[in-house]
Structure formats: C-alpha cells, structure tokens
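COMPLEX REQUEST
Ligand: 5-amino-5-deoxy-1-O-phosphono-D-mannitol
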Amino acid sequence: EKGTYPHFMLKEIDEQPLVMRKIIQAYQDENGRLQINEEITNAMLKADRIYIVACGTSYHAGLVGKQLIEKLAEIPVEVHLASEFGYNMPLLSKRPLFIFISQSGETADSRAVLVKVKEMGYRALTITNVPGSTLSREADDTLLLHAGPEIAVASTKAYTAQIAVLAILASVAGAAKRVPTDLDLVKELGIAASAMDTLCDAKEAFEQIAAEYLPATINCFFIGRSIDYFVGLEGALKLKEISYIQAEGFAGGELKHGTIALIEKGTPVIALATQTNVNGSIRANVKEVETRGAHTCIISMKGLDTAGDRYVLPHVHELLTPLISVIPLQLIAYYAALHRGCDVDKPRNLAKSVTVE
Ligand code: M6R
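STATUS: Structure written out below.
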C-alpha cells in the first residue's frame, strides 16, 4: 500500500535507509559480524573468475559489484548483459562462478542464461528480492535483498539493496581470504543509512534541480568517472524510463572522443564527483562542457573540494558512494516525470517484470 505517498516510487525511495538497516541485521551473526552461508563463501573462494549477469538497473548494480568484489575479495569479475550473453558468450575461465542479479527473480533474459550455464555444469548464485522466484529456485544458492515488495516499475530500493548485499558478499569472501582492508562494513553501511536519511529529508533540493534543469529540455547527460560513471548510467536510465527525456550516462574521459559534440547552449549535464582519485579530472570535464554552453550541476561529497557545487552529499566510504549518490538522481527523475505529467509508477511501454526474451 502507498499509505500517504502519492506514488510507490517515492515511498520506495524513502524506504532505502530502513532497507539498509534490515540488510545489516539479516546478514549479521550473533556477534554482530557479517556472515554469508558457508557454501556460498566457499564457491566464491573456489572461483577463478566471477561472471555477473543481469539486465537494466540490476546490471548497473552489477557494475558496482565488480568494483566491490575485485577490491575487497580480489577475485576478477566480468559483468554481462543477460540479453547479450546468451548468443555472445565470452570465453569462460576454468572455474567460473555465475551471479545472477534480479529484483524480481523472473527476468526471462537472465533466466535463459541461468538455464544455459546450469546445463554446462556451472554453479550459480542468485541475488534477488523475491524468495521462491524462478531464478532463486533454479540457482544453487540465493541471497535475498530484504527490500520488501518493489511495486514501481522504476527500480530504486532494489538497486541500493543489491549493492549492499554485493558489498557484504565481497567483504565476507575477502575476510575468508584474509585480504587486508580498512573497511568496517557494518559501521560504514550504518553511516550510509544515516546519509540516506539526510538525502530523503532533502527532497526539495532535488525537486528544485529538476525544475531548474529539466523542464523544457529534450535531453540530459550524466557524467562521472570510475564508480560515479556507473551511477550516472543508472541516473540516466531512471530519467529516461519515467520522464521520457533522452538521457545518457558517459564516462567523463570519453567526452572528447565524440560525445562532446552533443553539447549545446543549455544542455543539462549532471556530474557526479564523489571519488578523490578522479576529482580533478571530472571537474576538468565539467569545465569543458561549460565552455560549450552546458548547464552543469555538480553533485559531490563532503570531504572533497566542493566549493560552488550544486549539492554536497554527506560523507560515506568511497567504495559505498553509489548507495547515496543514486538517491538525488532517483529524486531528480521522479520530480522531472511528475512535472511533465507522466505516470511515474507505470511508465509507458514497460512492465515491472520482463518475462519475455
Ligand atoms: O527484476 P530484474 O532486476 O531482473 O529486472 C531487470 C530490469 O528489467 C529492471 O531493472 C529495469 O531496468 C527497471 N525497470 C529499471 O528501473
């Protein structure tokens, strides 16, 4: 039920801090340490390469998951679109482990790959929000998102839940392998949950950005580098899916290789700048597009040099920034769609579960 909310999407955006806290609880042992069922951890340790397979928003969470698993568990990861993997299968490593990410657990493109890799005799783990769903039943193991039902077609709380569960999986595997780390994940996920509260209380700021940048535009670009690039892809998907504004996410460094030709006077460019190691270079990209007339909006994070930025996010661990940097983008998409009179929860041409290939 929507309760007092005008739309499920807004309700589900607001549920994200609570979902974070539920996930922390669900994956803690009695001593407060993060735990994952031993079989899954062993499967991670045995794998020489992990193949993440997913669609849409779940694919975008997978891109972040690759960073988390490679950094925290030191296992190489490839991320594939399910619809491409089926007929364009990459050369597989000797001991692959497949991870299917699917909010619904019913996505036909993902299921087709799962059936194929099971026939080939490989092990598969499904990360899903729906216990007993097809992908959960047909995989060897399941990790649940604990996000509660997601009704709006635009996925919001499932994305952040997927990232949190992937972080836990990566961190538990890393600990089992004794990979050195300074990350106290329980603490940092708690900090991220509080940062999410702050953002959910700051909706007006994002409504204003939508009103100022997007009312009459035909397009909008999201730029970022490293992990911010992946969040930009998700921001663009959210915006196009519900507001029908043509939106694209680009890696900052790629602009000069063609994309910058699209920038005209007034083109909205939303830049994410949450990462220390690329802070200077993404700001240089913002200058480049500003010089060509773009209407730029920098969303950065406390702790970096943030003077003049449009919105400064509360500080969280740099590996976990997608959990919070996506929230302004979800809200900007929501308000842009609302202002355009679109059906926010049920955008045209789309279904919540895509059960055809
Ligand atoms: O249920 P799934 O996570 O497998 O769904 C995958 C995509 O269809 C889904 O994420 C879609 O991209 C969303 N509508 C995006 O908001």
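REMARKS: The CA atoms of residues 231 and 322 lie 6 Å apart. The chain has a mean pLDDT of 96.
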